[in-house]
From TrEMBL, chain A:
PANTHER family: 1,2-PHENYLACETYL-COA EPOXIDASE, SUBUNIT C, PHENYLACETIC ACID DEGRADATION PROTEIN PAA
Domain of life: Bacteria
Enzyme class: oxidoreductase
Gene that this sequence comes from: paaI
Keywords: Oxidoreductase
Single GO biological process annotation from the record: phenylacetate catabolic process
Name of the protein in question: Phenylacetate-CoA oxygenase subunit PaaC
Matches recorded under Pfam families: PaaA_PaaC
Signal peptide feature range: none
Gene Ontology cellular component annotations, sorted alphabetically: cytosol
TrEMBL record, chain C:
Pfam family, one: PaaB
NCBIfam families: PA_CoA_Oxy2
Protein name per Swiss-Prot or TrEMBL: 1,2-phenylacetyl-CoA epoxidase subunit B
Length: 254, 330, 93
């Protein structure tokens, strides 16, 4: 594929992951386990949807077929979405919510860190602002993983269960495909080996501190989000998220 | 309006002769517009009334997240989604500021929240109505936040310091909520499809009267109002505030090109105010008693969140304890 | 949240010279209190400094009625939470 094709794909992946994870967090509105957590969750969600918008806007410019950021977000079906499968997993209990957040935040943090030095200036700019936000996301989610892992017996059990059920989605975060490789070669995207190494390093460190056991390194990994093959969850997420635009396709103003 | 029915414990005002020296001093301070602060002496009735009012105000903010939370996952554009998310987050924040102010009076947040979950504490009646189409997000911002602002601007001058300062902070943040809501409706009326315009009018038809009810009953039916006014917890009467709201809102309604579901709404040249129809007080009291469309669901959602979150909060405490012990042992 | 302690929050804004008492938060520990304070009290500001102090660690001066009557705008007395000092813009509200 050409570099431009890869770049468009890559941007959509960044945008879609942020968008879908932001959407999952929106589902928790009014249902957080503490009022202070309402603030924190919405803060993370706002950051993610804001970042998604930035990535969508850049992608729309490159795709240049008349679609704007909103059309990309609200009028693409599940098979066109490029988010990581981790982001579409349901909220379940707070251990799963924080586990999902943690695994994603580590990937997101190292990715953005690398992107701040991207040869693509626009990407570097968006990443620089996002990195500040995501550094904070990672701090929070890793603390919660530790609190749960090393808290009460119940929280430890729930957190270990969460790690176990989410583990199969971690592979996709650090397994590169052609698009990732083209981006890395062009100096636009991160070095894929380094990203995997950094991710494993931090995840192992935090899980150890949390007295939790990571999954096996050679565990079977469920992948496919990056090329549009999703879990059954995404269809329902999009049905809800995109409903108004789909039900009133002629509306140009909202 | 968060004090739609707050008991002051006083059947009538005390005369100067009936007051103790401390009560007299206190009342003089209040008349002199001096702020009452947490460490000051205050009548027990004043303290209790404030706890009830502030806690109900805080409950309202938190429950108020739910009607909007109902649409945040369905917001139709990135901009609208971000705006709504920010608004909801502000509401959670306002609840937190208010609970904090309440705690300065010696109340316990968990206890007060438990009362809410048991159906023993009230919150603003408006949040017991459902949000049924996207235009409700506009109508809620415009009418509900609009009504709240009328009340809150006045409350900035309430006698209790922490409550007054919380109101100032909240008002600063709230000013954009109402404008945002109105803009949603205006954009849909100006540039929307026929279906969108119908959504706007439908939203107004359902939320107009509940918004007016937010200001509470007529003052002559509100015996507690008198004491609240004397203590400057309440600064203006329910009817005064309601009239202020209507007078400022009707021109905005006309500018939208919409109508209110009130055939008696009309400008009165003589009084310089809008006349309006009688509120359905039966509905008002039903909703306050727990028989509104969404009371059950709203409370259930809040109760579940806190009950199911118990293990989360306990884990945090257990972890903090372990860390502390490790630090001490080191 | 009685399981979570009450902490008082002090914030120094970007161009401010000193920390001001802005309110309180509940948290399980100081780290969480810091983050909760950041999320609640500084989400519209950049580059602020935050202090959190357990409420029971604070010793407050006793309030004399006279002091309060004649120094109403200089809020030095607190037990739990008192709030933002009146911002300059309050005249326009």
């Amino acid at each position: 594929m050409t570099q431009t094709e890869a770049l468009k794909e890559y941007l959509l992946r960044l945008a879609d992951s942020d968008m879908i994870l932001g959407q999952r967090l929106c589902e928790l509105c009014g249902k957080a386990p503490a009022l202070e957590e309402e603030m924190a969750l919405m803060n993370v969600a706002l950051d993610l949807v804001g970042q998604a918008r930035n990535w969508y806007e850049y992608a729309a410019e490159l795709i240049d077929d008349g679609r704007d950021a909103d059309k990309l977000a609200f009028r693409r079906d599940a098979h066109e979405y490029r988010n990581l499968l981790m982001t579409e997993q349901p909220n379940e209990d707070y251990a799963v919510t924080m586990g999902r957040q943690f695994f994603f935040d580590v990937y997101h943090y190292f990715t953005l860190k690398s992107l701040t030095e991207s040869s693509d200036e626009r990407i570097a700019g968006i990443a620089a602002k996002a990195l500040k936000e995501v550094t904070y996301h990672l701090r929070r989610s890793s603390e919660w993983v530790k609190r749960f892992g090393d808290g009460t017996e119940e929280s430890h059990r729930r957190m270990q269960d969460a790690v176990d059920i989410l583990w199969r989605f971690t592979g996709e975060l650090i397994t590169p495909d052609d698009t990732d490789r083209v981006m890395a070669e062009a100096g636009i995207g991160p070095d894929t080996d380094q990203l995997a190494k950094d991710w494993r390093g931090m995840v192992n460190e935090v899980l150890t501190q949390a007295t939790l056991t990571p999954g096996a390194e050679d565990a079977w990994m469920y992948m496919g989000g990056k090329h549009g093959e999703h879990t059954e969850h995404l269809g329902f997420i999009l049905a809800e998220m995109q409903f108004l635009q789909r039900a009133y396709p002629d509306a140009t103003t909202w | 309006m968060y004090a739609q029915l707050v008991e002051t414990g006083a059947k009538r005002l005390k005369t100067k002769e009936e007051m103790s020296p401390e009560e007299r001093d206190f009342q003089e301070k209040v008349y002199a517009e001096t702020k009452i602060e947490p460490k000051n002496w205050m009548p027990e009735g004043y303290r209790k009334t404030l706890i009830r009012q502030i806690s109900q105000h805080a409950h309202s903010e938190v429950v108020g997240m739910l009607p909007e939370g109902n649409w945040v996952t369905r917001a139709p554009t990135l901009k609208r989604k971000l705006q709504l998310m920010a608004k909801i987050q502000d509401e959670a924040g306002h609840g937190l500021y208010l609970y904090s102010a309440m705690e300065t009076l010696g109340a316990d947040r968990d206890e007060e929240i438990e009362k809410l979950h048991q159906g023993k504490a009230k919150y603003s009646s408006i949040f017991n109505y459902p949000t049924l189409n996207w235009a409700d997000m506009g109508a809620v911002g415009w009418l509900v936040d609009g009504a709240a602002i009328v009340n809150q601007v006045v409350l900035q001058r309430t006698s209790y310091g922490p409550y007054s300062r919380a109101m100032i902070r909240i008002c600063k943040e709230e000013s954009f909520h109402q404008r945002q809501g109105y803009q949603i409706l205006l954009d849909m009326m100006r540039e929307g499809t026929e279906e969108q315009k119908a959504m706007v009018q439908d939203a107004i038809n359902r939320l107009w009267w509940p918004a007016l009810m937010m200001f509470g009953p007529h003052d002559d039916e509100s015996p507690n109002s008198q004491q609240s006014m004397a203590w400057k917890i309440k600064r203006k009467s329910n009817d005064e505030l309601r009239q202020m709201f209507i007078d400022q809102t009707v021109p905005q309604l006309e500018f939208l090109g919409c109508t209110a579901p009130d055939p008696d709404l009309k400008w009165n040249e003589e009084t310089g105010h809008y006349d309006f129809g009688e509120i359905n007080w039966q509905e008002f009291y039903d909703v306050l008693k727990g028989n509104g469309p969404c009371n059950r669901e709203r409370i259930k959602t809040r109760k579940n969140a806190i009950d199911e979150g118990a293990w989360v909060r306990e884990a945090a405490v257990a972890y903090a304890e372990k860390q502390k012990q490790r630090a001490q042992a080191a | 949240m009685s399981e979570w302690r009450l902490y008082e929050v002090f914030v120094r804004s970007k161009h401010g010279l000193n920390h001001k008492h802005v309110g309180s938060v509940h948290a399980a520990d100081a780290e969480m209190a810091m983050e909760n304070a950041r999320d609640l009290y500084t989400r519209r500001n950049e580059g602020v400094s935050i202090w959190v102090v357990p409420s029971d660690a604070i010793t407050a001066s006793a309030s004399d009625e006279k002091e309060v009557l004649f120094d109403p705008s200089e809020d030095k007395v607190y037990r739990h939470a008192s709030f933002y000092k009146l911002p300059d813009e309050v005249g326009h509200m």
